[in-house]
Specification:
The structure is a homodimer of 200-residue chains. Chain A has 200 residues and is mainly α. Chain A has a domain of 117 residues: Tetracycline Repressor, domain 2. In chain A, 69% of the residues lie in helices and 0% in strands. In chain A, helix 4 runs parallel beside helix 8. Chain A is elongated, with a radius of gyration of 20 Å. Chains A and B meet through helix 6, helix 8, helix 9 and helix 10 of A and helix 6, helix 8, helix 9 and helix 10 of B. The first copy, chain A, binds a DNA duplex (30 and 30 nucleotides) through helix 3.
DNA sequence: TATTAATAAATGAACAGTCATTTATGAAAG
DNA sequence: CTTTCATAAATGACTGTTCATTTATTAATA
């Protein structure tokens, strides 16, 4: 039954594809570049993944599973829920802290602009992150770090927006360090900036 | 001296280019698509703009000038600085409230990923927006809407991140309406979410 | 005023390059 | 020998770009 064994595994091809995307962006990815990276020939990739699109789908699926698994890890001995939230946010930043990685991350977020079928994968990762954030926020409420009655789901949405937006704007102006800006913005989102009389 | 008059103006070509980018993304733009849109032939665009890259540079330059001019408009009879800030943010959202416009906006933000020379244009728009936000925040401080001693520049950075990130995440999950989510996130950034005893 | 020359704009065809994909062929392992 | 993997070459569809040519307009000339 078993014929000639594969010279290179699927996983190393996908890793190479991610690497290429990191360099030239998702739209600039070519089968030739990926094939070169792993010592194969473009046609082989088509045969193994069906098409270029098939390879991209496989890459999206793998990335999504990895990211979901990452977000399902329990809080690891962090002193407080909010501290764990900051850690989560900073880890997310690791996906955007170089121009290459940022381009890659952006490509992932906007995969549906390349191929609508890939949208579900980006969405599942996004929702896994949201669930993790909501869980931490609720812990924070339970432990008194956040005011009781906080709309944790809505706040989680804001936190996600802040994470994504901080990466985006930092990629644009490169002022300061990314963790520093993230921490400041997060603190601003979670603590008061207004005088005691509340605004409208 | 004067030869044959131009059948279509530069501005309508650039507008068509922006439209095409909105449909197929910046990397998917082809001269043929733009030429089709305005009833010309691809070669004509090369002759008029020097090259495809020249057309993109012209588009970036125009978009940058438009956006800067937009941000330099004075506060227009808004009841309060923070209300004006919310209005500014919501106007920014108008650039991302459809998939097409969002793609276009994203293309603009990431122009340097297409061509490094275009980065300066994206950056200048970003800084114009920052100046506008800082000005409003300082008015808010002066009028007592924000606590004295607020680091308006840092807070402006957070506001920008929130604007960009809200557009990004909304494009991903499409939950709720964009203005609603933006307003909630902004309120969260500018008002307290913690109990009176402040967190670290 | 009528005619001609000069100039710019636009065309359409062709070019060279790249890309994904297909086909036919050879090699490696059970 | 059969099955699977990989290759090399060829294909067809695009791409941006160039070139000679045509068209439309203004300026100058007689």
């Amino acid at each position: 039954m078993a014929g000639r064994p594969r010279g290179v595994d699927d996983s190393v091809i996908l890793r190479a594809a991610a690497e290429v995307i990191g360099k030239v962006g998702p739209a600039g990815l070519t089968l030739a570049a990926v094939a070169d990276e792993v010592g194969l020939v473009p046609g082989t990739l088509v045969q193994r993944f069906g098409s270029k699109r098939g390879l991209l789908v496989a890459l999206a699926r793998r990335s999504a599973h990895e990211a979901e698994a990452h977000h399902e890890r329990p809080r690891q001995g962090r002193p407080s829920p909010l501290e764990a939230l900051r850690a989560l946010a900073e880890e997310s930043m690791a996906l955007m802290d170089t121009p290459e990685r940022f381009a890659n991350h952006l490509a992932f977020l906007c995969m549906d602009l390349i191929d609508p079928e890939l949208h579900e994968y980006a969405l599942s990762v996004h929702e896994a992150q949201r669930r993790a954030i909501v869980a931490l926020l609720e812990e924070a409420v339970a432990e008194g770090e956040l005011r009781a009655g906080t709309d944790t789901v809505a706040l989680a949405g804001s936190v996600q927006a802040l994470i994504a937006g901080t990466g985006l704007t930092w990629a644009l102006d490169r002022q300061g360090t990314l963790p520093e800006r993230l921490r400041r913005a997060l603190t601003g989102l979670l603590s008061p900036h207004t005088p005691s009389k509340e605004m409208s």
